[in-house]
Structures are given as structure tokens and as C-alpha cells.
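anyone seen this seq b4? input:
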Amino acid sequence: MKVVQLLPALNSGGVERGTVDMARALVQAGHESVVISSGGTMVTQLEAEGTTHIALPVHRKSPLSLLQVRPLRRLIETLQPDILHVRSRVPAWLTYLAWKKMDPRTRPRLVSTAHGLYSINRYSAIMARSEQVIAISDCVRDYLLENYSQDLQRPPQVIYRGVDTAEFYPQLALPDGWESGVQEEFPQLAGKRWLLLPGRLTRWKGQEDFIELVARLAGERDDIHGVVLGGAEPNKQHYEEELQQKARELGVGDRLTFVGRRSDIRYWYKRAAIVYNLSKKPEPFGRTVIEAAAIGTPIIGYNSGGPAESLRACFPRGLVADGDADALYHKTLELLDSDARTQLDPEFTLETLAQRTLALYQSLLIETRKNAA
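predicted toks r here
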């Protein structure tokens, strides 16, 4: 097969990582992989792993982007792929408009992955109008069926995001000098059991609930220290200052540390006593849950959205009622005094993701051949 994936850019994020992971799997399986985007920091890795990258401005939310439809159609006709796989709304619109005017007998099959719980409007509906939609969780599938049933060509197929078990695994060891390096940067973490909340700093990710939890625990557990891992968006720096002020007001400014963005997150998972996912609104998935589960660290999360699906499969003991501060507090005490470990469900591995997606591509091509016959 020749598969072309399209997304706005290749910098950081779940969509980008999923694209690169799938591209690698295609190449490893002997298929031809092409990615079209406006570029980004992950292009070097993508090309080093055997995928061709083509730079096109398919990222701008502007009517001027429609000028890319005709060049994109010519490019698709030149490439002659078997599958077009779109992963975001602007590229999906441009690809759909280019693809729609191609000969139905010879054009590639059109696949989309719904990575989010998109706003309900005509602009977002494009993610449901491909020939086959992949939903990254049951939560996303149900959302599509509820809000975009009139646009779907067939029921969405659930294929969970997958964790790379060559990178996240139970036997992972902390590198020599890693912990001493962390303690040199953050001396207050030395000798403590870390309660870790990973995720970018935004109002719905649950950092405020986490700070309140640490404040409640601080009075009776002198062995714990809260760690908030993640950075604020460029225009949201004030939110980090708000959170730090809240910690000071609750008297735990010295029991809570903001460590910023980290490229070594797997070691923070490994060193943590408990990892948390406390999103205040349903998330489509919850990558931090499956990454921590793959390493074996206990996880506590609200029973909401995609993260709850992952927790139910990998560590149901860690589920607490959405927004229930008492349950969060008691569950933390329970797990701190236990030897519980998580176990990654095979449904959430990168290998399963690749196998399921390749099988979906193949089924569409078999369908094409049958129709041609």
C-alpha cells in the first residue's frame, strides 16, 4: 500500500505523535508512507524512519486555504496513493474537496481519525464525512454517533491510541544520575514520595483540584510531595502564577513543585508513587493514563471520558467519582499504603494500534477491488 497522512503541522501533541507512530509502522510493514503537513520539529524523525514528507500550507484556518485544493488534487493524482488519512479539520476539508472531484473508480479511499470531541457545527462535521472514521475511544465514537450521525457513511471504528512498550515498560530503570540531577534542580523532592499530575497548565486539567488534595494530605503525611509536570501555553503564563498563588494561600507552597515541560516524562512516571488524571471535562482519550499504566505506577483518575476507559481496562481500582474531593483524598491514602501496580491492557499498545489500522486500510482496498470486479 501507499498511504498518505495529512495533518496541519508536525510539532508536538497526540495527533502528531499518532501520525509519526503510524508512519513508522507502515514502513516497518513494507508499505510506502507519505505525510503532508506545513512542517515542524518532528519532520527530521519522520524522514529518518523512512517516510516521505511533503510540505504544504494545509494548516491555516482561513478561506485563503481553499487555494490549496487544486494543487493538492494534482499532488494526490501524482502520488496515486491507495489511502488518504486525514487527522484534523483544515486538512480534512482541503483533502475532501480535492478528493471529491476525482474519479470515484480510481481515487484513493478516504479515512479520518477523530482525535477530539469537536464543537458541533458544519466546520467540524468534515471529520465524520470520510468513507471510514476511526474514533480514538468509545467516548469519541458515542459523541460522533450522537452529534454527526447524518454525516457518517458507516459506523465509526474504535482504535485506541497506543503506547510504545519499547519506551514505557515495567522494568524501566532510572538512568544513573537522573534522580540526583532532579534533586539538584528541585531539592525539596529529595526523600519524598511524589504525587504526579502531568498535563499542560490549563483550567480544565485539574491542577486546582490537585493542589487542594496536596493541601489536605500535607497535614498528616510528611512523606508526600506534589509534582505538577507540564507547561502553560505562551499566552497563558498567568495561569501558572495563579496556581502557585493558590498553593501559597493553602500553605503548601513548599509541598508542591512545578517542574515545567519535560522530555523525560517516563522517568517521572517511574519515580512517582501515584500518577493523576483529573480533567474537569471529558477528554477524548488520556495518554498519560496508558503511559503510566505501561510502567506499572498506580493511577487515580475521575470516572469521565476517555481516561476513564483506559483506567477501567488497566487499573479500575484507581477510578473515583468525577470531582469528588473526598473520594480522591481517601483513594490516595489507600494507594499510598498499598503495593498496587498497574498493568497495560494490550488494546492500548502501539502494536495493536498499527495492526488494527492496517487491517482497516486493507478492508477498504478489498472492498474497492470487489466493487471494480
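Residues 2-162+349-372 form a domain with the Rossmann fold fold (CATH 3.40.50.2000). The longest strand covers residues 32-37. kinda curious what u guys think
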